[in-house]
Amino acid sequence: MGAILPVFPLGTVLFPGLVLPLHIFEERYRTLVRDLVATTGDEPHEFGVVTLRHGSEVLSGDGDGEPPAGEPPVAAGQLYDIGCTAELRQVTELPDGRFDVVTVGRRRFRVLSIAADPHPYLTAEVEWLQDEEPADETAGLLAPRVLAAFRTYLDLLRPESEVLDQVPDDPTVLSHLIAATAQLTTDERQELLAAPDTASRLRTELRLLNREAGLLARVRAVPVPLSDLARPVSPN
Fold first, then answer.
1. Pfam families, per this entry (predicted)?
2. Helix pair 198-220, 171-181: axis angle to 10 deg
3. What is the overall mean pLDDT for the chain?
4. What is the pLDDT of residue 55?
5. Distance from C-alpha of 20 to C-alpha of 32, rounded to nearest angstrom
6. What is the pLDDT of residue 194?
7. One domain for residues 49 and 122
8. Same structural domain for residues 118 and 162?
9. What is the DSSP code (8-state) at residue 97?
10. Rg from Cα positions in the chain
11. Mean pLDDT over residues 137-156, rounded?
12. Distance CA 113, CA 81 (A)
């Protein structure tokens, strides 16, 4: 049997090491935050972030953002299989009971099933994905190529802005930063989150960045505003 983890369905893909601020307004997830804050011990206060296939936090309900009592917020088929835990780093409770929280991505997991659980919020049975080993020689060789492609992509995407001045030295951290920053589809981000190792993620990113840079270069060659031709940005 896998671990039981509280999960928060969102329209975004979280990567390890990346910061994710959240505004918690739905009552069942206010309860989740209160339960996590009340937890004692050395274990991190974390919950799973799983991405919705339809990009909306609430897929059922009576119009006020709250599903009927006893009804799970989502069904298993509406979630991607791979998620990442979010560790609470800062919690601010507002006067009306809502929360502003700051979380950081921590570890990846695979959703096995939606768990039958007495808690009002969603829980799932999950298996932890193996932690990535320190980047190997292949990843070290790929990282400069991917970074160069990322700089080219950013320069084409936002020519008036400053391209990255500081980037992480660690290939794994770099791969997660690029995955979270580039304007990719949700499916593409999920593919990167599920990559078995840093080298595989970097290879995929190199392919995606070269594709996007090629598209942007062709669009810029056409004498019309870029905003008229650019494809819709991913909701993440």
1. LON_substr_bdg
2. 40
3. 84
4. 47
5. 16
6. 96
7. yes
8. no
9. S
10. 19
11. 93
12. 9
Separate counts of helices (H) and strands (E) for the chain: 6, 6
The DSSP line for 10-32 is: ESS---TT-EEEEEE-SHHHHHH
**Beta carbons of 78 and 93 less than 8 angstroms apart:** no
Q: Is residue 146 part of a domain?
A: yes
Give the separation between CA 29 and CA 14, rounded to whole angstroms: 18
- Does 74 lie in the same domain as 47? yes
E strand or H helix at 49:
strand 46-51
First to last CA, the chain: 32
Instruction: Kindly state whether residue 235 falls inside one of the protein's structural domains.
Output: no
Using CA atoms, how far residue 216 sits from 64, 221, 234, in Å, is: 41, 9, 16
Domain span including residue 77: 3-128
Q: Long-range pairs for 104-107 at CB < 8 Å and ≥24 separation?
A: 104/17, 104/18, 104/19, 104/20, 105/14, 105/15, 105/16, 105/17, 105/18, 105/19, 105/20, 105/49, 105/176, 106/16, 106/44, 106/46, 107/16, 107/131
Nearest-5° angle of CA 128, CA 131, CA 137?
A: 150
**Helices assigned H by DSSP within 78-220:** 137-157, 171-181, 186-193, 198-220
Cα(174)–Cα(206) distance, integer angstroms: 12
**40 or 214, which is more confident?**
214
- The β-bridge relationship of strands 46-51 and 3-10 is parallel
- Residue 116: what pLDDT? 76
Structure tokens at 2: 């896998």
